[in-house]
Write a structure and sequence with these properties.
The complex is a heterodimer of chains A (261) and B (640). Chain A folds into two domains: 8-119, Beta-grasp domain (Ubiquitin-like (UB roll), Roll); 126-253, Alpha-helical ferredoxin (Fumarate Reductase Iron-sulfur Protein, Chain B, domain 2, Orthogonal Bundle). Chain A contains eight helices and seven strands, in the order ββαβββββααααααα. Chain A has helices spanning 41-54, 126-133, 155-165, 172-176, 183-194, 203-217, 226-230, 238-253; strands spanning 8-17, 26-36, 77-78, 81-82, 104-108, 117-119, 122-123. In chain A, a hairpin with a 2-residue loop joins strand 6 and strand 7. In chain A, helix 3 packs antiparallel against helix 5 (183-194). By secondary structure, chain B is an alpha/beta fold. Among the domains of chain B are: 269-402, Flavocytochrome C3, Chain A, domain 1 (Alpha-Beta Complex), CATH 3.90.700.10; 476-626, Up-down Bundle (Methane Monooxygenase Hydroxylase, Chain G, domain 1), CATH 1.20.58.100. In chain B, the strands form six sheets. Chain B has a five-stranded parallel beta sheet. The two termini of chain B are 46 Å apart. The chains are: A alpha+beta (261), B alpha/beta (640). At the A-B interface, helix 1, helix 2 and helix 3 of A face helix 3, helix 5, helix 6, helix 11 and helix 12 of B.
């Protein structure tokens, strides 16, 4: 953690403004003074928006909801880094004590072909939901479950599954990837379920369907590793390796034998 | 005018009530289910689980959320866990004990039958979630782990590190997405419900605004389920997500649905104290922290020494001293009021003197940092990120904040409101927590309602409409409702006053917190009842909403929500004024004993207050639903 304290910051912001998906967009520059270093980054933008509104200008559209780093709604490119300079931290949990008085801060939306800019800093991430719909679940109808303790889950498997399940679906991995791949997002969900005994019956079908849906909407993974760096939940790139292994096995296992339909 | 309230409670012994009731509910055969459209608003735990379950059953479901994805609902932020009476710990838990604890925790202001059903259903919820792949904490043998949680003397709380809500929501979300892929659920994202359509005396559909295009459309359904969460954001500063609002429930209220017990609001004891005026929301830390953290303040007033410099003898572990049996694990309202008392007395800690210590040094010395990290690592990290302080070395500072609202739309045992066909699930209804909710019970209720109650009871309602065409969008009520929504929207976009929506929201929140917060009195509530409408008038006259209604416009979205918060705030204050007793989260200063403990008035107030909207110019009408207790005897809560 860098300097803490009750200082006041005067900043210059370069913010991406875009009226809608069809608009070309441009940077606009704002001087923002008197920001407490204890404020969060989004509270700093709240203050700027209040001022813009009172000046008769349109406030900057940016998305956020829980402001606790768990809902995955927020996500800004700050000085070229997804979620900004602090590792393992979503934009809403980033605080101004990470910045210095006089800083110039560039704020952009996630940039990726599959994330269309809706307005200013807000983008459309529904392609991520399509990957989940392709197989990111265990098929168990309500009421059909056996007793919860019937199937023991080794602690290591449960812990590892949880590490993967911690994904908040913010899309930072896509924004940070030079290929705009959603491989870390996909791998996290695939491995969350593939690591659990409950996930075994659909393991191979799930893996193939989710990976190929990812490929349909996003670029391909070439192991740059930028995603792991950007991930606010620090999800390990190892899950990608495991998913690649599962994918190869799935392609073999899912192949129908001769004569089968 | 509404006659007497019929909660349609089951007869007979509690143990068999829900089973017998389910048998008595009418069924819709599989072929007929696809003839019915069910609208589900909200995709948090209650909404997503209801939509998925109804889709699996074969109904045509239309699900609506204002988020970009169903996975973002605020259920996701619940940290601590979910209760279930599995008795896996062999420590004497049972369905009856969970029922008893919940009734007692709710300060005897909830229905026995509802609460018993909740406790009973808790067993199936855990089974369902585990089967769906929720990665709950495990013991080394591979079986599920449990921990104890605020207000309980048994370990019945299932958890997934400090992110239980997230993992449960992702489970319900994946079940929902499976149905979306299967084509049984038609999912509408970035679609905000702005009104309920009531036609021919029943809920017939909703009016929504597409948040991207601004287009306002009507959707018809044979039943409407609201699972739209609570109203804590009426306080502006709360632990709720920024977008949480009361609009869907409030619009339904204005269309005839009764609003029950709005004054029952819950203050969560373990939040990070507010910093300054820029603060946009408060952050909660799971109260599971109270299992191992010890709460204290200096014995001396205005003690400015660092925590480490204050010797043991000069520390006041006030909860442990006052409540020998429960200590730091007393229920939320008790913990919160005691924190307020010591801070008000000038013994608060931190630079603003607005918190109390939550100290982990004992457990760190006993078990080591690694054990503590495994249990609470993410919470400690979160605290450090927000405050810039390291809780492994200095005690955390905490203070209560508004967190949950027990009040909500009135529903009967079937979770149907007094408007036929309008069902309400999860935090949006008032049904199960009485005047105070126990920890780890919100997730339980959301999933009980969505997975296991509404799918049965909606079927019973629909069975009564077989073969009858419902009022479709051609019914004039739809066009009328759409045009009322458009008129409201046009009023906001024409507003070019001198203050922002957030400014008014903040001012409103301050009023509600000051007069209807952790403790209330008649003079303060009367003041609130005078100030709130005055501020609302100012809001209408002087708010500034830039931009157009035909694009994504966050100021416009907020204006409509804050307008509804104004009306709700007034009802909240009125309800608090009329309830001349202290119970659960509602503490009236006039009603306390010599030691400052809450004093209920069972003679006059063993009832639900269900308010009817009587138009913008007339005061609301208060209806009563009497509460009867047969299995438990209301006693004064004692945690000593």
């Amino acid at each position: 953690m860098s300097a803490t304290g009750n200082g006041t910051l005067n900043l210059r912001l370069r913010v991406w403004r875009q009226d809608g998906p069809g608009d070309a967009g441009r940077f606009e520059t704002y001087d923002v003074g008197g920001i407490s270093s204890d404020a969060s980054f989004l509270e700093m933008l709240d203050v700027l928006n209040e001022r813009l509104t009172l000046e008769g200008r349109e406030p900057i559209t940016f998305e956020s909801d829980c402001r606790e780093g768990i809902c995955g709604t927020c996500g800004l490119m700050i000085n070229g880094r997804a979620h900004g300079p602090q590792k393992g931290t979503a934009t809403c949990q980033l605080h101004m004590r990470e910045f210095s008085d006089g800083d110039l801060i560039t704020v952009e939306p996630w940039r990726a072909g599959s994330f269309e800019v809706i307005r200013d800093l807000a983008v459309d991430r529904t392609a991520l939901d399509r990957i989940i719909a392709a197989g990111g679940y265990i098929s168990v109808n309500t009421g059909a479950a056996p007793d919860a303790n019937l199937v023991p889950v080794p602690k290591e498997a449960a812990e590892s599954a949880f590490d993967a399940a911690a994904c908040i679906g913010c899309g930072a991995c896509v924004a940070a990837c030079p290929n705009s791949a959603a491989q870390l997002f996909t791998a996290a969900k695939v491995q969350h379920l593939n690591l659990l005994p409950q996930g075994q019956p659909e393991r191979w079908a799930r893996t193939e369907a989710m990976v190929e849906t990812m490929e349909q909407f996003f670029g391909s993974c070439t192991n740059h590793g930028e995603c792991e760096e950007a991930c606010p939940k620090e999800i390990s790139i190892d899950f990608i390796a495991w998913t690649n292994r599962d994918y190869v096995r799935a392609k073999l296992k899912n192949r129908k034998l001769a004569g089968q339909r | 005018m509404i006659g007497s309230l019929d909660a349609r409670l089951p007869e007979g012994p509690l143990e068999d009530a829900w089973t017998d009731h389910k048998f008595a509910l009418r069924l819709v055969n599989p072929n007929n289910k696809r003839r019915f459209t069910v609208i589900v608003v909200g995709t948090g735990l209650a909404g997503a689980s209801a939509a998925a379950s109804l889709g699996e059953l074969g109904y045509r479901v239309k699900a609506f959320t204002y988020h970009d994805s169903p996975r973002r609902a605020h259920s996701i932020a619940a940290q601590g866990g979910i209760n279930a009476a599995k008795n896996y710990k062999n420590d004497g838990d049972s369905v009856f004990r969970l029922f008893y604890d919940t009734i007692k925790g709710g300060d005897y202001r909830s229905r026995e039958a509802n609460v018993y059903r909740l406790a009973e259903t808790s067993l199936a919820i855990i089974d369902q979630c585990v089967a769906a792949g929720v990665p709950f904490a495990r013991e080394y043998g591979g079986l599920l782990d449990n921990r104890s949680f605020g207000g309980a003397q048994v370990s019945r709380t299932f958890y997934a590190r400090g992110q239980t809500g997230q993992q449960l929501l992702l489970g319900a979300y994946s079940a929902l997405m499976r149905q979306v892929a299967a084509g049984t659920v038609d999912l509408h994202t970035r679609a905000e419900m702005l009104d309920l359509v009531v036609a021919d005396g029943r809920a017939a559909g909703i009016v929504v605004r597409d948040l991207l295009s601004g287009e306002v459309t009507a959707h018809a359904g044979d039943a409407v389920i609201l699972a739209t969460g609570g109203y804590s954001n009426v306080y502006f500063l709360s632990t709720n997500a920024k977008m949480c609002n009361v609009t869907a429930a409030w619009r339904a209220h204005r269309r005839g649905a009764l609003f029950a017990n709005p004054c029952y609001t819950q203050i969560h004891p373990t939040c990070i104290p507010a910093g300054d005026d820029f603060q946009s929301k408060l952050t909660l830390m799971s109260e599971s922290l109270r299992n191992d953290g010890r709460i204290w303040v200096p014995r001396a007033f205005d003690d400015t020494r660092a925590a480490a410099d204050i010797p043991e003898a000069e520390r006041d572990y006030y909860l442990e001293e006052k409540y020998a049996a429960f200590g730091n694990l007393v229920p939320r309202d008790v913990a919160s009021r005691n924190a307020k008392a010591v801070v008000d007395a000038g013994r608060g800690v931190g630079s603003l003197r607005n918190g109390v210590y939550l100290d982990f040094s004992d457990v760190l010395a006993r078990d080591g940092a690694e054990v503590v990290r495994a249990k609470y690592g993410n919470l400690f990290d979160m605290y450090a990120r927000i405050t810039g302080e390291d809780p492994y070395r200095v005690p955390m500072r905490i203070y209560p904040a508004v967190h949950y609202t027990m009040g909500g739309l009135w529903v009967d045992y079937n979770l149907m409101s007094n408007v036929p066909g309008l069902f309400v699930a999860g935090e949006a209804n008032f049904s199960d927590h009485g005047a105070n909710r126990l920890g780890a019970s919100a997730l339980m209720q959301g999933l009980a309602d969505g997975y296991f109650i509404v799918p049965y009871t909606v079927g019973d309602y629909l069975a009564g409409h077989l073969g009858k065409e419902g009022p479709g969008t051609a019914h004039p009520a739809f066009a009328d409702t759409v045009s009322e929504v458009n008129d409201r929207t046009a009023r906001w976009t024409a507003a070019r006053g001198s203050r922002t929506v957030d400014w008014f929201h903040r001012e409103l929140g301050r009023m509600v917190w000051d007069h209807c917060g952790m403790s209330r009195n008649a003079a303060g509530l009367q003041k609130a009842l005078a100030e709130i409408p005055a501020l609302r008038q100012e809001f209408h006259a002087d708010v500034c909403v830039p931009g157009s209604a035909a694009t994504l416009n966050q100021s416009l979205e907020k204006a409509g929500r804050v307008d509804d918060f104004f009306e709700l705030a007034e009802l909240l204050a009125r309800d608090a004024l009329e309830r001349e007793e202290s119970c659960g989260g509602h503490f009236r200063e006039e009603h306390q004993d010599a030691e400052g403990e809450a004093r209920r008035d069972d003679e006059r107030f063993t009832h639900v207050a269900a308010w009817e909207w009587a138009g913008p110019d007339d005061g609301p009408i208060r209806h009563r639903e009497e509460l009867e207790f047969s299995a438990v005897t209301p006693t004064t809560r004692s945690y000593k």
